[in-house]
């Protein structure tokens, strides 16, 4: 049978590797399993979105359009304008905004749209550790992924000066994750502008994955975004920039599969043309729910408060046994652990029935090593009482000798 040979270049997904790591282990039956491995929000969905979806079920009787309803694009543009302090007319709902069925599929599809595999050795740059969709997108677009190691030494932030200039010349697409997954580190606006200037100098597109931007401490400064950085740097048309936002994390709606892409009008139009063939139109009830969610901030504030309480409780319990601090954004703890990260994750599951994700599964080996080795990712998405129980079990595990 003939198949796309690039499929053989895909590596196992981190959760496949985690399942194999745990295979054959029987944890204590008296302990309820607490999964902290998957970043799936588990707070209640906002009622404003649920009610809007229920009230729009008659929309199932018609085909949606790929560009989305005008009301949805207007709601998205209005939210982004408020959130990132844009001039009122800067973000045109008709030219700069495109709804997508969750940013995961859009982040993947973008590479298929913008990578020119006929150019010599096309490269796609991405952080390391990284969201594995970036790598798979690059490979299936006919490009080679290249990695920017994120370590404690560089504050878990991309260092463009550490990348070979020849590699920048071959780069066609740069994936950014800001705030970062898994570290929660945040690039400031000046750093975003430096990368944007490099994109113009070396002729590549920036895909700014900003899906964790609304999960941040209530008393802190909200993370900046690439749209605002581009405008304030003089790029009035968001040239070479596409940002990706989602309702999954912001609004606890991962099952709705709703997000948006916004930025450079030429790129948005090309992506729209690609998606028209790809068949990615959002269902009308989902659009109605999305409009309601983007227009409402009250549930976002409540969501942030829930994460604030969980971080305070977990960090207090783990104080003295792990070197941890609250990340600038996101709902992960990127925790350094004693010994090998895979051994730690396997033994924690075996002894305490708690699942965390080995950091080495989120990273690739580079000349500098695997930057995720020696760390685990813990997603504080479970209810407060489960996060507290997991932290208490982890403290017991560490004090007994991990």
UniProtKB/TrEMBL annotation:
- Which InterPro entries does this chain map to? Aminotransferase_I/II_large (IPR004839), DapC_beta/gammaproteobac (IPR019878), LL-DAP_aminotransferase (IPR050881), PyrdxlP-dep_Trfase (IPR015424), PyrdxlP-dep_Trfase_major (IPR015421), PyrdxlP-dep_Trfase_small (IPR015422)
The biological processes this protein is annotated with in GO are:
lysine biosynthetic process via diaminopimelate
What keywords tag this UniProt record? Aminotransferase, Transferase
What sequence ranges are listed for the domain Aminotransferase class I/classII large? Answer: 34-381
Q: Which cofactor does it need?
A: pyridoxal 5'-phosphate
**Which Pfam families does the entry link to?**
Aminotran_1_2
This entry's Gene Ontology molecular function terms read: pyridoxal phosphate binding; succinyldiaminopimelate transaminase activity
- Name the chain's protein: Succinyldiaminopimelate aminotransferase apoenzyme
The organism encoding this protein is: Ectothiorhodospira mobilis
